[in-house]
Amino acid sequence: MTLIDFGHLSSRILHTAVSQVNPKVDKSTGKFDTQEWSSMYVHLLFKNLSYLKMKFEQEYGELVICIDSKNNWRKLVYPDYKGKRKKSRDESKIDYESFYVLQDEIINEIRANFPFRVIEVDRAEADDIVGVLARTYAPLEKTVVISSDKDFKQVIEYGCKLFDPINKVFINMTKDELKEWKIDHILSGDDIDNIPNIKQGTEFTPEFRKFLADEGVYKDIPVEEFLELKISQHLFDKFDIYEVIPSGKLKGQFRDTKKIFKRIPFGDKGRYTFAKDLKGNLLENPMYLKHFKRNQELVLFDYIPQDITDTIIKDYNEAESHFDTAGIMALFSKYHCMDLMKSVSDFFQVAKQQPRTGVSEWA
Q1: Fewest beta carbons within 10 Å, which of 46, 52, 78, 244?
Q2: pLDDT in tens, 60-118
Q3: Is the distance from CB of 117 to CB of 316 less than 8 angstroms?
Q4: What's the distance, Cα to Cα, between the start and end of the chain in Å?
Q5: Which residues lie closer than 8 Å to 276 by C-beta, 6 or more apart?
Q6: How many CB atoms lie within 10 A of CB 63?
């Protein structure tokens, strides 16, 4: 089984396509004209999928395309999960609204015409689908995950291979290395997914302490006690002191982050020392323990809800792949992918075993 995190692949291809085409900016929207780079996106995406099929299918089995659901169960655990991504998309020159329309079209085309199983499960991320399928099937058959996302290091402990397409290497880790990495990942959180480290959000700033005193709230109230107050959210909303960017191009401007919680450094050395007496350090501070359990649930595949796990396995077993040459030709013609039209058969033939000479051929 060859597991593809489609969102990760698609995003990488998107930025490559835009950089290669260097499209003009539409003055009325401030965004790149999607039509200028869409053909390059389609060309590069299917070039990569064709290569993946030829490179990995013979040894690891068919490609399984894993799709992110628009709903996400982790939002119930932590409402700010991936909360910064919308702001980042809004500020980008890429017109993400039209990109997602294009991406949905391509996913539907893959479902209808290509020899790949496409798995999308409500409330599940592609990470969940990859994690569940790797955990379930890697002990039974040769399985590889194609992604540069560090979260997928977890699949190695299931006996699954992990291939990093950016650095063009297989990732290898011992059991002890995986155990240490998982603890460190939980402690540090994940900036990309907007998951804070376990110490963040445990101490108020002096500015917010003063505000609480002015509002008649006990100035030195512990954070965990304050969060239990019914009025806590109202006071968070009322507080209007924001962080100021100290240097760089935006020096002096306000961030969109209120100065409620102190930023507590928790670098590599600090996490290493903390992990030496993990149980003792967590029990010493109830907030650290609470945040550790939150991050554990957010980042580890072992905590994927059982109902979602069951649905992923069911949908995988029921999924079908399709072989429609005419449909593929029509898609490639629409997006002017002439080179791909000449090699449509690559998507249907069983890949021949290739010499194990490394992976430098990655497209």
Answers
A1: 244
A2: 999 999 999 989 999 999 999 998 888 889 889 999 999 999 999 999 999 999 999 99
A3: yes
A4: 20
A5: none
A6: 23
Computed from CA positions of residues 190, 195, 198, 203, in that sequence, does the dihedral angle turn out positive or negative?
positive
* pTM of full prediction above 0.85: yes
Contacts of 210 (CB under 8 A, 6+ apart): 219
d(CA 18, CA 317): 36
Angle formed at CA 315 by CA 310 and CA 316, multiple of 5 degrees: 100
Pull the structure tokens for residue 222: 């512990």
241-255 confidence digits (pLDDT tens) = 998 777 665 565 666
Report the share of the chain in percent with pLDDT over 90. 79
Phi, psi dihedrals of residue 312, rounded to the nearest 5°: -60, -50
Q: Measuring CA to CA, how many Å separate 56 from each of 59, 72, 164, 180?
A: 6, 30, 13, 30
Helix H or strand E encompassing 2: strand 2-5
* Predicted pLDDT at 349: 64
| Cα separation, 83 vs 298, whole angstroms | 14
Helix-helix angle 6-21:96-113, to 10 degrees: 120
Q: 58: which 2 tokens?
A: 């013979």
Q: How far is CA 277 from CA 253, 289, 328, in A?
A: 41, 13, 57
Instruction: Tell me which residue has tokens 């379930």.
Output: 136
Residue 296: both structure tokens together? 């554990």
For tokens 């294009």, name the residue. 102
Is residue 283 packed enough to be buried (19+ CB in 10 Å), middle (13-18) or exposed (0-12)? exposed
The answer to whether 313 and 140 have CB atoms below 8 angstroms apart is: no
In order of start, what are the domains of the chain with their CATH numbers?
Answer: 2-174+303-347 (3.40.50.1010), 206-299 (no CATH)
The helix/strand/coil state of 5 is strand
d(CA 288, CA 189): 12
